[in-house]
């Protein structure tokens, strides 16, 4: 697979008729827009769009993706497939040593992320799975639109349920995953790689 193929695999789907909204506004600017509309003000407050929400600090990345987790009702108590994306050693470990996912079970991908400043919109999670260099699956799920949390707390997003493949052929080999969090304008907030294999048990 070429770098061009990787770029196309990880590009967000285009939305017909969508046009970028122009230069991004700060949270304060959004908070002050239509300030006389009470219902709109309440809705914006629910997104963390309130004057001074960023404390005036608009430097650094707009979004920090904190963790990726696989969650399944079939997973034994105490078992966790949890990747801390701020831990470089753990990232390397997940890239080199595949985690085991039980075959033929339902599971969800869950991520936590923090919005540092500004408003994010059209943000999505893209996951491309390859085996022996050939793409076998692509998942693209919307996160939605968010503002900085008033208390600085992270957001959690559970994506739609997936089902792991099953069978002897599916269990042979390693699956390489490239994950990316990107918005409609192509701004990449996080990009990482990890591996898994399928087994009869977790």
UniProtKB/TrEMBL annotation:
Does Transcription count among this protein's keywords? no
Q: Tell me its family.
A: Belongs to the Rho GDI family.
Where is this chain primarily localised?
A: cytoplasm
Q: Which residues form the signal peptide?
A: none
Function, as annotated, reads: Regulates the GDP/GTP exchange reaction of the Rho proteins by inhibiting the dissociation of GDP from them, and the subsequent binding of GTP to them.
**Naturally occurring in which organism (per UniProt):** Gloeophyllum trabeum (strain ATCC 11539 / FP-39264 / Madison 617)
**Pfam families, alphabetically?**
Rho_GDI
| UniProt cross-references to InterPro entries, sorted A to Z | Ig_E-set (IPR014756), Rho_GDI (IPR000406), RhoGDI_dom_sf (IPR024792)
The protein depicted here goes by the name Rho GDP-dissociation inhibitor
Provide one Gene Ontology cellular component: cytosol
**Disordered, as annotated region:** 1-35
Query: Which GO terms fall under biological process for this protein?
Result: Rho protein signal transduction
Alphabetical keyword list: Cytoplasm
Q: Where in the cell is it found?
A: Cytoplasm
Q: Which GO terms describe its molecular function?
A: Rho GDP-dissociation inhibitor activity
């Amino acid at each position: 697979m070429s770098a061009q193929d990787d770029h196309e695999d990880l590009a967000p789907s285009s939305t017909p008729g969508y046009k970028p909204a122009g230069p991004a506004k700060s949270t304060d600017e959004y908070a002050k827009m239509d300030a006389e509309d009470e219902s709109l003000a309440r809705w914006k407050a629910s997104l963390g769009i309130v004057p001074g929400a960023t404390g005036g600090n608009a430097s650094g990345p707009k979004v920090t993706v904190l963790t990726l987790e696989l969650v399944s009702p079939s997973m034994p108590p105490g078992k966790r497939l949890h990747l801390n994306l701020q831990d470089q050693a753990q990232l390397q470990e997940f890239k080199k040593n595949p985690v085991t996912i039980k075959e033929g079970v339902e599971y969800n991908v869950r991520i936590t992320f923090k919005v540092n400043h500004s408003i994010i919109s059209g943000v999505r999670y893209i996951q491309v799975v390859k085996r022996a260099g050939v793409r076998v699956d692509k998942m693209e799920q919307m996160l939605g639109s968010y503002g900085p949390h008033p208390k600085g707390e992270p957001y959690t997003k559970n994506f739609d349920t997936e089902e792991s493949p099953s069978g002897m052929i599916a269990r042979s080999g390693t699956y390489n995953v490239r994950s990316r969090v990107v918005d409609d304008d192509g701004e990449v907030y996080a990009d990482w790689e990890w591996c898994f294999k399928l087994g009869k048990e977790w």
